[in-house]
């Protein structure tokens, strides 16, 4: 699992803002979305390791208060991919989850770009935003928070706002919902587009090629707020948008040494001999240790170490050996579970 620390971002009910009354159809849709997010499975449903009880996500602000041009932003992205938190925060400003949707000036925030390496926790982050929506003060201005996976074909092929408002509640008049959102030009709606790097390249390259791109660029639903997650490699198609003052670029930066130790202690036990031997293993394998800042890699490494230790097999010392062992172990587990001969 990619853990995510959110801290105490909630607001007591007595201090939450009061909202003007919304049409019943928006209220019902919001209730439906909240129930979906509350019951959503983990980001990695077939998890590799025991779940860490304390969620953890660390964010760095790239474009906002400290970075004013794209060349600097690209250079600072490289620092993040190297995974050294001490180095990262010498050049970037750490930002908490509850500050993601605020700007330091009077501009209206229209687009937040959240990037990071594969497995770093981007999808975990947006799911955590959805779950915090009823409680987090900075999310209270949004009457609707809609999470959409850009790998899904129905989202890729969306032709209008109705395709971006999925609703399985048959009591609802979907046409009325669409009409209300369009009448407001998207005001009060937060779209979370997860996985821009999984969006087809030919659709990314043209702002008019898909309805998703029209919403991203503000050509459709211009009063909506959009957050999009992406690997850095796909950001080139979003860079023209980053020149605006109403854009934030944020990175998910993964684990520091403290979080690596916390994760390993949760997997092996805080006082166990296995934890001590695992730390010794990391100390003599700097290549493997350098991979541990990535939460997904952290899960893979701890699980492979557990399996190789139990089976008395040699532990991996390179990335190739590590991923080979993971593939063999998961294939063996699949054969056992499925009963395949």
From TrEMBL:
Domain NACHT: 110-236
PANTHER family hit by this protein: NACHT DOMAIN-CONTAINING PROTEIN, NUCLEOTIDE-BINDING OLIGOMERIZATION DOMAIN-CONTAINING PROTEIN 2-LIKE
Cross-referenced Pfam families: NACHT
InterPro entries noted in UniProt: NACHT_NTPase (IPR007111), P-loop_NTPase (IPR027417)
Superkingdom of the source species: Eukaryota
Protein name: NACHT, LRR and PYD domains-containing protein 3
Organism: Geodia barretti
Listed PROSITE patterns: NACHT (PS50837)
